[in-house]
Amino acid sequence: MSDIFEWMPEYSIGVDSIDQQHQELFRIFNKLSTAVSQNDSPKSAAAAMHEMSQYLDKHFTFEEPLLKKHPDFDHHHLEHLKFIENTLDFQIRFADQDKTVHMDMLSFLYNWLKEHILEMDKEYFRYLKENNLLDN
Ligand SMILES: [Fe+2]
After folding, report:
1. pLDDT attached to residue 1
2. What is the pLDDT of residues 78-91, one digit of tens each?
3. Is 89 exposed, middle or buried (0-12, 13-18, 19+ CB in 10 A)?
4. Is this model's pTM higher than 0.70 or not?
């Protein structure tokens, strides 16, 4: 069994560039989920995992400057760092061919992405918009 993300209007945080990047994260997650559930070659799952971590890097690098004016920016930044640390752990287990890593990783990613976007990103961007602190 694997989870597939479907984009829903409630995921929108109201900034087009960020929404597009979140959709891209969903797309990569689904690729990873499919690779794992269809038991493709380990290579395709590893490739999707690699794509995910690279895209996340890019996404956080883009998102964080926009969030800088939020009074709790440090907290958000820390959440991103903790998340990166977790995905690195998964990548190490992946490289060790740890078979249990797949499902753990998918459920972690699924829950994290969903909660982070729906709660933290949404709330931070709402605050920035309401207080005219969004530059773009
Ligand atoms: Fe975020």
Report:
1. 45
2. 999 999 999 888 88
3. middle
4. yes
Number of domains, the chain: 1
Does residue 10 fall inside a structural domain? no
Please give the single-letter amino acid code of residue 4.
I
In a domain? residue 1? no
Q: Ligand 1 centroid vs 18 CA: distance in angstroms?
A: 10
Neighbours of ion ligand 1 (CB under 5 A): 121
Compute, in angstroms, the gap from residue 131 CA to the centroid of ligand 1: 18
pLDDT-based confidence at 43, cuts 50/70/90? Answer: confident
Asked if 52 and 28 touch (Cβ cutoff 8 Å), the reply is yes
CATH of the domain at 40: 1.20.120.50
- Domain, as residue range, for 90: 22-130
How many whole angstroms separate alpha carbon 89 and alpha carbon 57?
Answer: 15
Q: Decide if 13 is inside a domain.
A: no
Interval between CA 48 and ligand 1 midpoint (Å): 21
Query: Distance of alpha carbon 118 from its chain centroid, rounded?
Result: 12
